[in-house]
Each structure stands twice: as C-alpha cells, then as structure tokens.
TrEMBL record:
It comes from the Bacteria. Residues 118-142 are annotated as: Disordered. Coiled coil: none annotated. It holds the Pfam family Acetyltransf_CG. It comes from Actinocrinis puniceicyclus. This is N-acetyltransferase. Residues 1-109, 6-92 form the N-acetyltransferase domain. The lineage of its organism: Bacteria, Bacillati, Actinomycetota, Actinomycetes, Catenulisporales.
Amino acid sequence: MAFEIKAEQDRERYSAYLDGRLVGWAQCVLVRDTVLVPYVRVDPADHDKGIGSLLLRRIFDDARAGDRTVLALCPFAKRWKQLHPGYRDIAREPRWGERAAVRALLLAARTRRRLDEFTETPADSNRAGPVSAMDAGTRQTA
C-alpha cells in the first residue's frame, strides 16, 4: 500500500492518497502568517486509519517550517491540537473580533475555488507554496 499526502495549492488543501485513490483532505487557507483549517474530511470507508491525523500533522509541520501559526476551526482539528501538545506553540484560537473576518475569508476562498472549477485555468495561475494567500482582499503568493 502506497500512502501519500500532497499539498495541492490550486485547491487550497492537503490531500491524502492511498494507492492513488483520494481518501481524505484538509482545507487550508493562508492569511498573512496564519493557516486556517476549516475542514478535515476522510472517506468513511477509510475512517480509523489515522488519515485525518496524518493530514493535520503535515499541515502543522509545514506551518512550523514556514514560521506560521495554525487556526484549527473544525471540531476534529481542535481536538487533535489538544491531543498533540508538541504543536501548541503554533496553534492558536481566534482573537476577539476575528471570527467574522475568518468566515468572510473562507467564503471568498470557497467561491474562488468554485469559479476555478468552471474555467480552464485557475483564477490566479501565479500561486506558489503549499497554500495560496489572501491578504486584505488581494491575492499573494505564500
């Protein structure tokens, strides 16, 4: 069995593949120096294999290497960070007044991904790094 985790910047996610088959993914949006993780999904047929944990470990490791913090938003990611104290130095909670802005950024990222699905090339083909960045409404490379 070949297992692989790929950073797919064009989809703003990390994806887990088992023998070439997509078995899970974690949505990631980079905002300034913070990686937002709103969703972690694993195929129900592949639950209880540690795939979600491996995805989050890769996200947190990449964030640490890039001197970034991680804002875990989904219940699974929140629980995971509690169970892995070695990542508490880069994990953080939303600051006061930040929740509405985070929701707006995630909605914008989801809308952009959906628009990209209907075009031959992504809306911004100059993306780089493990995830794309959004900063004050402008696109930047990570």
